[in-house]
Amino acid sequence: MKNHQTAESLRKTLANSYLLALKLQNYHWNVVGANFKTLHELFGAQYEELSTAIDEIAERLRTLGSKVDGTFEDFQKLSQIKSGNKNLASDAMIKDLIVAHEMLIEDLKLGTKAAQKEEDEATADLFIGRTTAHEKALWMLVSSL
Ligand SMILES: [Fe+2]
């Protein structure tokens, strides 16, 4: 398969995105403290942005001819993003999300290079778009600390 690395990167991006989305939802539900409303809304908005992206990433894999992993077991095997902890203080939640966004950005940059090497500009474009979105999300989280 000529787009082997690109497809692998898409699979990993999907797994990372799914686990980060779940973590965001966890923190959207469970955050407490003086900044409750702001953080509840910020985490909710990031979750929603990501859940739209997840569908695009999965459907890009199908477009390239690969089946899509649709199980938590598969996602957990492919991603280093750990489960969230509902009892964290709000600052610890923000820091945990920052680490996850950074991991995703790192993988997305590798994915962009892989896609460009395999001359799949459309997937490279998707990865670049996702990098932009995660960098913006990261800015908002860092600024909330
Ligand atoms: Fe909600």
**Number of discrete helical segments:** 5
Enumerate the distinct ligands. Answer: fe (ii) ion
What oligomeric assembly is this protein in? Answer: single chain
Helix content: over 70%
Shape, per Cα inertia axes: elongated
How much of the sequence is in beta strands? Answer: under 5%
Low-pLDDT stretches are none
What's the β-strand tally?
A: 0
* Main beta-sheet annotation: none
Query: How are helices and strands ordered from N to C?
Result: HHHHH
Overall pLDDT metric: 96
* Structure classification: mainly alpha
Distance from N terminus to C terminus (CA atoms, Å) equals 45 Å
Gyration radius from CA atoms, angstroms = 15 Å
Structural notes for this entry:
By secondary structure, the protein is mainly alpha-helical. It is built from 5 helices and no strands. It has helices at 4-30, 36-63, 72-78, 90-117, 121-144. Helix 1 (4-30) runs antiparallel to helix 4. It is elongated, with a radius of gyration of 15 Å. The mean pLDDT is 96. The site of fe (ii) ion (FE2) has 2 residues, from loops.
